[in-house]
Specification:
There is one protein chain. 34% of the residues lie in helices and 19% in strands. With 578 residues, it is α/β, with parallel strands linked by helices. The protein folds into four domains: 169 residues, HAD superfamily/HAD-like (Rossmann fold), CATH 3.40.50.1000; 62 residues, Hypothetical Protein Ta0175, Chain: A, domain 2; 227 residues, Rossmann fold, CATH 3.40.50; 84 residues, no CATH class. β10, α6 and β11 form a beta-alpha-beta unit. The N terminus is likely disordered.
């Protein structure tokens, strides 16, 4: 039997040197041992310091414990395993050094930066202004560093993380001084040791009770114990907005992006896509990596993601995994070229590979499954896929929560329900995993609203105005024209006595079948407004639905003319194959 893969949220520990892991320039044996345990846990270690590399090597022989070392306040990246040095800017400005020497301002020059001490920053600033240089001055507890604008510990860390194929959203940063602000702010979890400057403590997510290396060891003990899950409630800087309270239209309803899983449920055309698009756009904006499995081609051309697969070409799992290697590259996997019955099998082969990538890097941060009732039906079990049962960072989208695997549903923390049947949808979810449904009045969210249930926090439903995406999602029209829609999304020509059962899997097939069915069958569906209903609810195209509805309402049109006009409307709105 396969075992679930351990998924860590925090895969990188980035630490400052002086005043953080080192006291009076020395790292204790206990602290070095604790750092080694972090490395042995499979996590990456990064040292971020303002020191010059030769100076650092002379005082700290344990550099090899780190995967990357960032020196000169972010200007130089050093790889201890290969001893390769990578400067991120040009050598120090010779004119500036000559002027400082001429004015007898003491300094030391590294590969990239110039360093001195307070109060020498005043004549240094005067020299920079006099020469018209684009340089900045950075302070570090009395030390003064001069380097090109835009370079700091955050930019150096970003370079190191990219080389390690890691994300800032999986990084803990620890520091004590002014120059640590940027790289702490850019990380998912910022920690200040007890001896840190008050301003750094005020902005950190967590402050250790002990100083220097002892504080870092305190943090490491907690990291190895529970992956800092006990810190989750304190870390809200990167939370996602679901919407605002419908009562006062002011209070944001937010989701922790670290370990939550989300179920978005509701009938077709109820606003599910609106709610999901608002969340996905935030993921892209905040540089969370997502992988969206898109059975119907609804999210093709979504901004900020590479679409893989077309209505005629199956997506290649190897290419998907290769595309996900860069930490901020998002992927939408279009399954239209895969027969509906084969799509769960495709997912079964892909999920273990995504899980393995997550076990190593903590990403993709979010895995999004549209049409989840088709992709992971009730019989689905993670035991067959080595997919972890407790798996945060998933968004399941479905019309039928009771037809989704209960194993997957049990990991859901947040339920977002749209449409008139929102309360019943939530009740179906509760019954599927055998828990008590929240007691609530039968509330029907209006368009643009949703019922939200934080099921592990309270037994109360919240009515919210959903967060809207800034850019309206563009559907790929050719997907609906040529792709294979699921059985429940297809159109069926049945006729007045249900003697037929002709399935139109896409718009091209709809037009072909429409030409072949008898007049009685065509008019039967026309008078019932079945065509406009299908376009609106399943194809989800309001403009096409409105055009069809106008044709359906014209009682004087002969059957052959109504057929011609509806076909013309489809051709007008959709790019059909030649």
């Amino acid at each position: 039997m396969a075992h679930p893969i351990l998924v860590m949220r925090y895969c990188v520990l980035a630490v400052d040197y002086d005043g953080t892991i080192a006291s009076h320039g020395v790292v204790s044996g206990d602290t070095l041992h604790a750092l080694t345990k972090v490395r042995d846990s499979g996590r990456k270690l990064v040292l971020v310091t303002g020191r010059h590399l030769p100076d650092l090597k002379s005082v700290f022989p344990g550099l090899e414990v780190f995967h990357k070392v960032i020196v000169e306040n972010g200007a130089l990246v050093y790889d201890p395993s290969t001893r390769e040095e990578k400067p991120l800017c040009e050598t120090p400005n010779q004119q500036l050094m000559d002027l400082l020497t001429q004015r007898k301002i003491p300094f030391t020059a590294g590969r990239c930066i110039i360093a001195t001490w307070e109060p020498n920053h005043i004549p240094v600033l005067e020299a920079i202004k006099e020469l018209g240089l684009d340089h900045q001055v950075i302070f570090n507890k009395g030390a003064v560093m001069i380097l090109p604008s835009g370079l700091n510990k955050a930019s150096g860390l970003a370079t190191a993380l990219n080389e390690l194929r890691m994300s800032a959203h999986n990084t803990i940063a620890v520091g004590d001084a002014e120059n640590d602000h940027p790289f702490l702010t850019s990380s998912a979890c910022s920690v200040a040791v007890a001896n840190a400057l008050p301003t750094l403590k005020d902005r950190a997510d967590f402050v250790t009770t002990q100083s220097n290396g002892a504080g870092v060891r305190e943090l490491i003990d907690q990291l190895l114990a529970d992956d800092l899950a006990s810190f989750d409630s304190r870390i809200t800087r990167h939370a996602l907005t679901v919407g605002t309270s419908s009562k006062d239209d002011q209070d944001d309803l937010r989701i922790s992006p670290g370990r939550n899983s989300i179920l978005v449920v509701g009938p077709s055309a109820s606003g599910k896509s609106t709610a999901v698009s608002g969340i996905i756009e935030q993921l892209a904006e905040q540089k969370y990596q997502f992988c969206l499995v898109d059975p119907e081609g609804d999210y093709e051309n979504f901004a900020g993601a590479i679409s893989m697969g077309t209505p005629k070409e199956r997506p290649d799992p190897d290419a998907v995994m290769k595309t996900l290697e860069p930490p901020i590259q998002n992927v939408v996997i279009n399954l239209l070229a895969i027969p509906v019955g084969d799509r769960p099998g495709f997912l079964q082969t892909l999920l273990p590979r995504l899980a393995e990538l997550r076990s190593q890097t903590g990403r993709p941060h979010w895995i999004i499954l549209d049409e989840a009732h088709h992709m992971i039906p009730p019989a689905w079990s993670p035991a067959a896929t080595t997919f972890p049962i407790e798996f945060g960072g998933m968004i399941l989208i479905t019309v039928h929560p009771d037809k989704v695997s209960p194993v997957a549903l049990r990991s859901v923390d947040v339920v977002i329900a749209t449409g008139d049947s929102a309360s019943e949808s939530i009740a179906q979810f509760a019954r599927a995993i055998e828990i008590q449904s929240p007691a609530a009045e039968q509330v029907s969210p209006e368009p643009g609203q949703a019922l939200v249930w934080f099921r592990k926090e309270s037994n109360t439903l919240k009515l919210v105005k959903v967060h809207l995406a800034k850019g309206e999602r563009r559907r790929h029209r050719r997907s609906y024209a040529e792709g294979e829609l699921s059985a429940e999304q297809s159109f069926y020509f049945r006729g007045p006595e249900s003697k037929l059962n002709l399935r139109a899997r896409n718009l091209v097939m709809f037009m072909q079948l429409a030409e072949g069915v008898g007049e009685e069958t065509w008019v039967y569906h026309l008078r019932r407004h079945d065509y406009s209903k299908w376009f609106r609810e399943k194809i989800k195209d309001e403009k096409l639905a409105a055009a069809a509805e106008a044709i359906e309402l014209d009682q004087n049109l002969p059957a052959v003319e109504s057929r011609r006009r509806i076909n013309e409307a489809i051709e007008q709105f959709y790019t059909l194959p030649a």
